Amino acid sequence: MLVVLIGTVILHLLDLILLLISTSVNAWRTFKTRSYDLWYDCRTKNGGYDCTGASDADWLQAVQALMILATIFCLLSLILFVWQLFTLNKGGRFFFTAVFQILSSLFVMSGAIIYTVMSPGGQDEDHSFGFAFVLAWLAFPLTLISGLIYIVLRKKE
């Protein structure tokens, strides 16, 4: 049982790290010397970066909010898991932790879908998605799997 708990906590921490990186790093979309992110639009000039604030588009603010919510809910579910680990009755399930984790996965999925559909550059061949965007999509199934594990997981002695 200890191995399952350690594995679950490691998976949860991995989810949290992926969400933190994908929310904060400036690499959601790239185009030659330009990179887009949820917060900044940066260009490389003379070996340095020239960054301006991201546009005030409604869809981008929605993605920002969803990614922040996903990160917060993932952190709250980790805190709830530790709390339930010590207060839950023997044989109980970690339902609250699972609900928060599944909500986190739905938030990150929604944010990534909105960014995919509305991102700058459209279907242009020169634009490519950056590693932070890929990490956001990777965080979705891992967070969902983690939430499903919490539904199945029962507290043992």
Task: Produce a short descriptive summary.
Helix content is 63%, strand content 13%.
Describe the structure.
With 157 residues, the protein is α+β, with helices and mostly antiparallel strands. It contains 4 helices and 5 strands, in the order αββββααβα. The chain has helices at residues 2-24, 58-87, 95-118, 131-152, and strands at 29-31, 34-36, 40-45, 48-53, 128-129. A 5-stranded antiparallel beta sheet has the order 4-3-2-1-5. Helix 3 (95-118) runs antiparallel to helix 4. The longest helix has 30 residues, at 58-87. The model has no long low-confidence stretch (mean pLDDT 86).
Order of helices and strands: HEEEEHHEH
The proportion of residues in beta strands is 5-15%
Please tally the β strands and state the result. Answer: 5
Q: What is the distance, rounded to the nearest whole angstrom, between the alpha carbons of the first and last residues?
A: 9 Å
The rough form would be described as elongated
- Overall pLDDT score: 86
Largest sheet: 5 strands, antiparallel
Radius of gyration: 18 Å
Low-confidence stretches: none
- Biggest sheet, spatial arrangement of strands: 4-3-2-1-5
Q: Enumerate how many helices there are, as a single number.
A: 4
Secondary structure class reads alpha+beta
Fraction in helix: 55-70%
Key phrases:
157 residues; alpha+beta; five-stranded antiparallel β-sheet; 4 helices; 5 strands
Question: How do the helices and strands line up, and which of them pair or pack?
Answer:
Layout: H1 2-24, E1 29-31, E2 34-36, E3 40-45, E4 48-53, H2 58-87, H3 95-118, E5 128-129, H4 131-152
Antiparallel strand pairs: 1-2, 1-5, 2-3, 3-4
Helix pairs in contact: 1-2, 1-4, 2-3, 3-4
